[in-house]
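## retry 2 of 3
previous attempt timed out at serialization; input unchanged, resubmitting
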Amino acid sequence: MKKIIFVVSFVLVCSLSSAQEGSQLDKMINESLFSYLNNWADSYSRVCRDCKEYDIYICLDGYPRNFVFSEEIRNMKNLKGMRSVKFVSFMNLSGQKELKRGKWYGVVFPGISLEKNRLIISVTKGSISVTGNNQLKKSFYDWGNYTYEYFPDKQEWILVKTEYDGL
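## retry succeeded, writing output
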């Protein structure tokens, strides 16, 4: 009986620990993505005074399993010319009827890398066009890198560096 209680307790602790790590990662990704979209909208509004409103597409591919976008990101509207945020997956283009062939769309892509005790979340913005034979034409032109460092004494990840760059 003690063995069963131990095993059940161990499984419960592991799953809670995993859920906490997942929520920390989700939080860091959401904060980085939100920061990037705000920075991009600020830059856009400074450069483009009489431009049309635009939709920004966030690529759903490449996020951790069970990742959930924050309410802030899902409800982003009217942010300095941004009409709305939409979500698209390029793993299954046949299901993306919203993307018209030959038209270019602004898309944000995720990237996550781990180097020792540093987690780097990269957010890349580019343009995507779907050709007549359902191939993708891609061009990438700016990005933001958000470097988080893990501090064991605090048991948390802290943003230590933010970089924006582009072509």
